[in-house]
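Next up, sample data.

:::
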Amino acid sequence: MKNIAFTIITLCLFSIGLLAQSPELQVLNTDSGNGVRLQALNSGRNVLFGENTGKNLGPANPFTGDGMFNIMLGSGAGRDCVDCVQNVLIGRNAGVSRTSGNGNTFVGSFSAEASIFGDNNTYLGSSTGHGNNGNGNTFLGHGAGKFSSGSNNVFLGFKSGENYTGDNKLMIHNSTGGENDVLIYGEFDNKLLKVNARQEITVDQSTEQGLSVTKVGSISNDEPAIEGVHVSSDYYGVGVRGRSKWKGVEGIAEGDGGGAYYGLYGSSLSANSGVNYGVAGFSYNGQSNYAIAGFASAIPNSYAGFFSGNALITNELEVQGGIKISDTDLGSNADDDIISRTTSLRYFMAVSTGSFPSNSGGPNDQVMVGEVKLLPYSFTPAGWLPCEGQELMIADYNSLFALIGTNYGGNGTSTFRLPDMRNAIPNHN
């Protein structure tokens, strides 16, 4: 076998050498024999090797280039290629039935078989591009592009792009399939790339971003640079998930004009009988857990959170720093204010005035020790103290201590504390 291969290579080199010396010499086989003979047919500068190779190659036309500068190796390669120019056909019946074409490279048995015409194609693999008459295609793999039609396509893999109709497509796969079936699908004219598979990207930690996607243009719409879609029929699924030791997902809005900008925006629009959450947060296992955290700068009109509409809280609401309520006029009524932001209110407790409460009844118009009132005073009335968590001596307020004890602090022997209600909101349950 080594000797046979060596002999074939030697004959090819010998033929090419002869062509370099005499462009009117070709190497070809006759229909009936396996031996190689030299025959001066025309000045086409072709290299032909194999039984029936280039059998019907037409006479060279120096004005159009037809029938010139072809390399055909293999039994039946380019057999019917009458007006072929600058083609490379290697393999049994490579390009058989083709009558014309320019700048093609077909490597593999039956590659480009039954492809009548087409220019600048590259087919590598047996039966690649069978029957395709397009231009500028690249097919790699057994049966890639077989029975397809179209131009400027790239099909890579076993039977990739088989039976496909269309132009400017990329398909990487090892079986037949369409846009949503192949491993990688692309559209060169639309600059679209689709990967139908789970993806893992590992990058050097020293780089700035693991994955960077930049959408260019001045299109005034909300089409995202990155979109995550989970197609599920059981109403479960996660479109985008971020996982990190610090920030799982970070959103930054850098608008420099008027209007509103959102670092993170969520919406839920499903028509169902359940509950929709535009943004939902869950936090657990930490010393302090915040399902959703918002931070605002100290400049005016900066808010860590903004709600336009009703807010529902099913558990406790803890506020550190007070609450500011700015009422918006809801109509023509002047009395629809909930709390005026210009009103200053404080909680006061009767500490040394009034009667001691009893469950046996008593005058309804008397103040009771321990009674709390919300008053708009800038001073402290006699017998009352503001509820600000201050420490009191038991000896000075025996009656009050007998009622509230150390519920709000103190050592219980000499001191006790009033409740701190500076940030309190009444609970009407």
